[in-house]
Structure formats: structure tokens, C-alpha cells
Amino acid sequence: xxxxxxxxxxxxxxxxxxxxxxxxxxxxxxxxxxxxxxxxxxxxxxxxxxxxxxxxxxxxxxxxxxxxxxxxxxxxxxxxxxxxxxxxxxxxxxxxxxxxxxxxxxxxxxxxxxxxxxxxxxxxxxxxxxxxxxxxxxxxxxxxxxxxxxxxxxxxxxxxxxxxxxxxxxxxxxxxxxxxxxxxxxxxxxxxxxxxxxxxxxxxxxxxxxxxxxxxxxxxxxxxxxxxxxxxxxxxxxxxxxxxxxxxxxxxxxxxxxxxxxxxxxxxxxxxxxxxxxxxxxxxxxxxxxxxxxxxxxxxxxxxxxxxxxxxxxxxxxxxxxxxxxxxxxxxxxxxxxxxxxxxxxxxxxxxxxxxxxxxxxxxxxxxxxxxxxxxxxxxxxxxxxxxxxxxxxxxxxxxxxxxxxxxxxxxxxxxxxxxxxxxxxxxxxxxxxxxxxxxxxxxxxxxxxxxxxxxxxxxxxxxxxxxxxxxxxxxxxxxxxxxxxxxxxxxxxx
Length: 495
Hints:
Blueprint: H1 13-24, E1 42-53, E2 56-64, E3 74-80, E4 86-93, E5 104-112, E6 115-124, E7 135-143, E8 148-150, E9 166-179, E10 182-191, E11 196-203, E12 209-215, E13 225-234, E14 237-245, E15 261-268, E16 273-281, E17 289-293, E18 302-306, E19 321-322, E20 329-334, E21 337-342, E22 353-359, E23 365-367, E24 374-382, E25 388-395, E26 403-408, E27 413-417, E28 430-434, E29 442-449, E30 452-457, E31 462-467, E32 476-481, E33 486-493
Parallel strand pairs: 1-19
Antiparallel strand pairs: 1-2, 2-3, 3-4, 5-6, 6-7, 7-8, 9-10, 10-11, 11-12, 13-14, 14-15, 15-16, 17-18, 18-20, 20-21, 22-33, 23-32, 24-29, 24-33, 25-26, 25-32, 26-27, 27-28, 29-30, 30-31
């Protein structure tokens, strides 16, 4: 065993208090997504510790159980055998120790020598009259898949290990892995010049870490803080994932409040430096952030992300719950571009199937609705030469309430607009992305789950993720567009 009982702190009363509160305040299922992950109650944001341990999938997540709003962060915890059906387990981490008094922030997990090792950020608020008391540090916890204890020697990476150019109060979200007999760890940071960067650390034993250095910003201006870094080898290539804040729009990119990006290149861990050759936004939706990749399964690359966005009201808070996760997505690289598909396990949810086959007439045409807005719609539009295609989703009977997905053939733009959905979401409600036709065809795979839409365009070459907090009774689906465009596809109810 890597860590003995003597090296770990006993759990405290706050753990039991949180578990008891959750048990007494579980939100009824009808107010939640049907097949996307949500907490039993309260608020969630970033996925954490997404890992495989003793043959089962574990998902931890930023959690404030006591209200549907952001608060002092806990680590919620759930387990699954198929990435789709999740069993909620006791809260894994609650704040309150000297090294995480004001929050247990995001991190990652690995199975090591039969133990489940968590690495997370401890947050300390500023104390009046005490300089540099506002800071973040990296901590360890150890568990058996159900219960977790914090390491007595925390923090294992304190602000004293940071280079001079780094700020100590924006230093978070450790992602660690094992490679060639060495542990490596990436942490997001804000420089003293307010530029996003990541810091690389290495260790032989997880408790004593060495700062290798700052991975320099060498691929353009990308915000003031780099959150939730992740690193994977995909098809033999180094890929770096980031969630930058305070990023300036660049054409269609980064027009949301916060962004998520990936870069394909070469990662030199000795310098350290990541030389980017190619990159893009991961998802062009309104509600997508902080993706984390699964640790412990090497034969495929899977991630899950937070399906929400900061500084937006979340109407589901009326039910006592806020936030959800995306579908698990399996990714590959093709010609240096990220291709995303729903994890194969998603398709086990398919039940009743119906076919779609008609030609657009220039008028609005009805497509069989998904019962309860729970299921999947796959459509291929062919003979697309000019004009437009419009999909009215989650619509009422006369299509005065709807969310619209439209494609402009001349501009090659796919646009989502929820401003007519009566969803009650303030702020930005429209985004576009460039989608090229392939042999005159546009293919769309759309997953609806009561209050959300995940859209995979052209076989997953581009994606969009959105929430739509509109009445469930609005479940009609209409299509219109240029006369002569042919539509073929199928729809699957998931219940």
C-alpha cells in the first residue's frame, strides 16, 4: 500500500452532515435530466477525478449540496459500470482542514497500488491583516472507492514551489499522470502579468514534488487564467486541453463567456514547453466547460464536461438543483483535428425507432417528436446547394415557442438560437460555428434530454452543447428550408 492509515486524517463530522443533508433533499427525477449526470441536489460544476478504479468508472464533481448555487466546494461522488447509469456515493471531500478551509477545488484521480489517489486544490480566502493569506495549494486524499481520507502532510505542492512569475491565489486544478516511472502534474495559473499559463511538476512518490517550470504561452493570447488543464496522447500525438478565462473573441471562436480549447503539438517536459501545431475550440455551444479525460482506460480516449456556463441564471434552481454533465464523449484525431462521438454506451439507451424520409417543400414540416424530449435524432440533408435549412426544436403546437438550429449554405454557418424558447436564461442566447458540407450533405446528430441539446455535426467534426430551460410539454419538432433538399434519418426514443 502506498499510504498507511497513520499517514491519513480521519474523516470529520462535516462529511456526515453533508451526506445527511443530501439524503433528505434529493430532487425528484422528473425535475432532472433523464440520461445526463446530475447531482442528487444542489449545485455542481467541473467534473473531477474522472477515473477507472477496480474495474468501475468513478466521477467526482464540484458540489455545493446545500443550495442550487455556487458555494464552498465539496467533492461529490458517483460510480458506474457503463458510464450512463450512476450510483451516488457519499461525499468524498468536504472543506474544513487547514489546507482547504474554504473549498476543495477541482482535481484528478489515479488508481495506484490498489488505492484510489485524489489530487485536488485547497482554497483559503484572504484574512484581514494577513498578507498573502488568499492562496491555493495542491493536496492529496486516499480512498477505497467509497470513503476518502486526506493526507496528513498536505499541502504536497504549496505556493513556495511556484516560480516567481506565478500568482499564488490563482493556482489550481491539478491533473496528474504516471509516465516512464515518474509522476507528472499540470496546474492552471494566472501570471503576475495576468496571462494564462500552466505549471508542470514532477515527483517520484506523490508527496515530494519538484517544479519543472512554467509551460510558456507560445500559441497566442488566450486569456488571463488557464483553468482545468488536461493532457493526453491521442493517436500518438500530444494534445493539451485548457479552459481559459477572460479570453477575447476571435471571429466565431471564444464568443461565449468562457472557452474550452485544445492544441495538438509536441510536449517537451524537460524545458518545459508545448509547441502547438494545430488547435481549435472543443465545443461551440453556450453551455460547455472544464472537460476532463478519463484516467485508467488506455484503449480509448473519453471525456466528460460541465454542461452549463458561469454568470448565467439557471432556471432549474427553482427545483433545488443546478448544473449537469455532458454525455461521455469518445475522441480521436483525424488530420490533426479532434473528432468527437458519443461514447458507444450511449446507444444502449435506444428504444423505439422511427424513420425520417422526405423532401423539403419550402414550408414548415413536422417530424415525429421525442416523447418527453428524451432521445436522439439523426438527420442527413442532401442535395444542399443553396439557401438554408431550419430545425425548430422543443417547439409548441404553433411554433411560436422554439429553439432553432439553422444552416446558411452560402455562409457555411450552423447557428443555434434559444431566444424564442421562453427558457428564462439571461445573457447570450445565440452562437454559430463554421460547418463545411461534405459532398453536398449536412449530417446532424442531436441528443435531447429535457433541458439540454448536444449537437454533433458532420460525424463529430464540430459540436455544440446548450441548455434550454423551457416547458417539457413543448416537444414538437419542425423542419423547413430550401425546396428540393432531401432529408433522411431516424429518431430514437430513450424511454
